[in-house]
Design goal:
The structure is a homodimer. By secondary structure, chain A is mainly alpha-helical. Chain A is built from six helices and two strands, in the order ααββαααα. Chain A binds a DNA duplex (30 and 30 nucleotides) through helix 2.
Chain lengths: ~130, ~130
DNA sequence: GAAACCTTGACACGACCGTGGTAAGGTTCC
DNA sequence: GGAACCTTACCACGGTCGTGTCAAGGTTTC
């Protein structure tokens, strides 16, 4: 067969089974089910799971954010409203480096990341 | 003068002064400052504050989500990555009328392109 | 020069997020 | 028929979000 169970999928994608279920509940990746209700992850899902991890770690964004992006592409009205709001934003051509607010936004995570990077990824639970 | 202090702005926009500072910190609306450092909200800011409230309550989205949308429009690389992830998603044709979807896709791409073209090459990722 | 604003910084708190664990029960495999 | 997996449903925990409040100090106005 061409599909992995949740544990196998977790191993090859570097998620935990717990998180795979969480991701499904967030509506991001919903594998098909076997007759008995077992989740079955195909190659496409596995690839998307890896890419998802890449997205979240590389750009430091949460699943909620990706969920919002998904909502944005599905709900044209919402997308339009958000768009309209940004349209009304004043342009600052070359006034101030706009990375100030970004730094703040990522600052909250930086400590965590630094900490996680410093700590060896041993089995934290016993 | 043509600008309100934080308390006045709060009253006419139905936010609290606290939240106005929070919104500023989130990078969403940054009023100019007086000589002494007082926040000064002009008509544009007031309007955007009201629209922001409309957005958050009507669509039930948080400031973090709007911040993410802002990040999406500023960081073309991130936008592309998120886009790519969605491209690999399986479509469900019966959920979305194809014409609608296509129009949305085209629209999004054109906006993205316009943004990338307009944005100076400041994409020096970390 | 005092009242009434403004500033930043901190503590607090309920709600949710990301994540792990565990329990009670069904399925698959040998 | 038991081991090893799967399911859902909870509890727990630290972190972030949205929000209020308070303190210590500067500014504006009369």
């Amino acid at each position: 067969m061409d599909a992995l169970t949740i544990q196998e999928a977790a191993q090859t994608t570097d998620w935990s089974p717990r998180m795979l279920r969480y991701i499904e509940r967030a509506g991001l990746i919903e594998p098909r089910r076997s007759q008995a209700g077992y989740r079955l992850y195909g190659p496409g899902e596995l690839q998307r799971l890896r890419t998802l991890r890449e997205l979240t770690t590389r750009y430091d964004i949460g699943l909620g954010e990706i969920g919002f992006a998904m909502r944005l592409r599905r709900d044209a009205e919402l997308a339009g409203a958000v768009d309209a709001w940004f349209e009304a934003q004043p342009r600052r051509p070359e006034e101030v480096p706009p990375a100030e607010w970004l730094r703040w936004e990522q600052d909250k995570h930086s400590k965590l990341l630094a900490l996680a990077a410093a700590a060896p990824p041993a089995t934290s639970h016993a």
